[in-house]
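Fig. S4 source data, part A: sequence.
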Amino acid sequence: MNVASDVPMNNTLEQLNYVTLFSQLPDSFYQQVIPTPLLRPKLVHANTDVARLLNLDINELQRDKFTQLFSGNTLLNNMAPLAMKYAGHQFGIYNPALGDGRGLLLAQVKSDNGVIWDLHLKGAGKTPYSRQGDGRAVLRSSIREYLCSEAMHHLGIATTRALCLVDSEEPVWRERLETGAALVRVSESHIRFGHFEYLYHSNQHHLLPVLADAVIAQHYPHLVNEPEPYLALFKQVISTTATLIAQWQGIGFCHGVMNTDNMSILGQTFDYGPFAFLDSYQADYVCNHSDYEGRYAFNRQADIAQWNLSALGYALTPLISNQSLNDALAEFEPQLVHQYRSLLQSKLGFSEHQEQDGDLIRTLFNLLAANQVDYTCFFRRLANTVGPEQMYDLFEDQRGFSEWFDRYMLRLSQDSMPASTRKLSMLSHNPKYILRNHLAQAAIEQAEQGDYNEIARLFALLQHPFDEQMEHHQYSQPPAKGTQQRPLSCSS
């Protein structure tokens, strides 16, 4: 078993401050379900940073009780697991039959600083909302979520995290026979856009203010005294979502399944399935091989987020006037553009926006696409580059890049930021390390043979994505030509 830190904590599993906020909602929101045990579970890795959030003693991570608890083999006396009921639009089509189909809200824990954390056991077996599924998660997809959620957190992007990852000998069939696994997803909330859609489309409109009041009270208490608190909540969700999508675009992250049931009411990256970080820059890259029409392509994520927000707004029409909803939605695009522009300025080393920046950036992205340049490597190397010839190896069109670089250097000469400050700023906004698919796949293949060491290495590496870490430089390299951008399935 690998543990990510050695800082002692205070509480045992039994001593954590368990609360039951969500289960106090009406029973339309959930059904209580006991997890189905995984066969012969084995702890793969535990995240002591997340344990710290819960005020959990790290020695607890080594207890057999810890592994048994988070593989569904036992429960504590004060736990009453439940499966949430929600609905949502999947690939633009409303589906009323959704809910926690392979996961359970195992418990909620209140930390010493007053934050309430959901512990969600993903891969817990069948629930009333599993439909035709087996309710299981496989090791492959669980590794990807465990590593990527931690990577996103350390990139400064709002996300769920994970407490631990558990392997087993449980046979599970996907495209092939695999082993079942469990992931404990940790977040301040698992409420999605789809929760509100469920109440609206099932004509339970009287419960919309109940849910909205619960969200405001727990997560946005500063909105309680607003003249129109529900409108203020919607505006808050618009703002956090705009920031999130701008960050995805800036870092080159593709979610892959931006259904409304995968959109967090807190504006967090939620439900990691067929995600990917860009390797070579391709604006219309689609990482989900089930997305035949490219609905969730990289360059459509902003439009889809706005579409999803409009679906949420429609569900809130019993609480908010149409005009107010439309006025609020109109603020999404300018907020996102402002956030994205600010991120690109930081990536390029500009201290302020100038009129010519738009054309300079468009020309750059056209060059990256035409030359199939690795997105992350380009921006990281740009911070250390003093002449275009230092980056000629990335471009077939060296003349085109050289012309762009001359324009870029002229733009820098007009900027007030000192060169030494600029370099440090760019290095702090352009990561050296991301969870590339080929890195995750290598860890998966080794783990499927019983070797979890690569998971531990990647986990530690991705906690410091902006550091040089020269001993791990090979992890910063793009995949070999011809192996980039492999599409992934929803079971990924």
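Fig. S4 source data, part B ends here. The longest helix spans residues 229-251.
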